[in-house]
Amino acid sequence: MAISVLDIRDTFAAPRVRAVAAAGSARRLPVAIAAAGTIGVLEAVGLMAVGLAGLDDVLTAPARPAGWLVAAGLGALAAWIVLCAGSGAAVIDGAGRKLLVAVSCTELVLISGLLIVATAVPLPNPTSLSLPALGLLALAVPVGKLLLVSAPSARRWVLEGPRVRVRRADPVQSHRMLVTVTLGVIGLSLGALAVLSPVQAGGVSDPASAVYTLP
Prior knowledge:
mainly alpha
C-alpha cells in the first residue's frame, strides 16, 4: 500500500532505468574514427603546406592576380583548413560527424566540378601525374572519410556522445609543500651560483670583449 504521493507515482508509472557508465571505465577509440580524424587533420596540414608553397609563386608571377582575388583565395583556403581540422577533431572527440560529412561532400562536388572543367579547358598540371590519376587521388580523400565515418563502430561512437572529461586534482594544490621546497631549493642554488662564481670583468662573457675595431 502506498503511503505517500511518491509511492503512488512509482506504483502506477513505468520505471525509468538509465544506464550510467562507470566512472573508471574508459571508452576505446574505434579504428575507423581514429583514421577519419587523422585524415582530416593531415589534410589540413597538407593544404596549409601547399598554400604556403604556392603563395610565393602567385605573388612573384609576372601576371599576378588582383589583390582582392589573392585575399579571397587565402580566406577560402584558411576556412577549408580550419573545417578539415575541426571536423577531424570533432569526430575523434565524439561531438558529431555532420561537419565531416558536409566537408567531404563539398570536396566531392568541388573536385568533380574541377575535373569536368579540366576536360574542356586545359588547366596547368604542376605534378607529373596524368589528369585522371590526379583526380582519382584527390577523390580518394573525401570518399575515404565518408566510408570511415559510416562504419557501424563510428556510428556507435558518435551516438554515445562526447567523451567525459575526468576532472583531476591540481598537483600544485595537492603537493603544496613539495612545490614550496622545490622553489626554495632552486632559488638557493641560483643565489649560491651567483655568489660563488661571479663573472670576471674582461673575460669571455664580457660584452666589451666581443667588440672588434677596424684599423
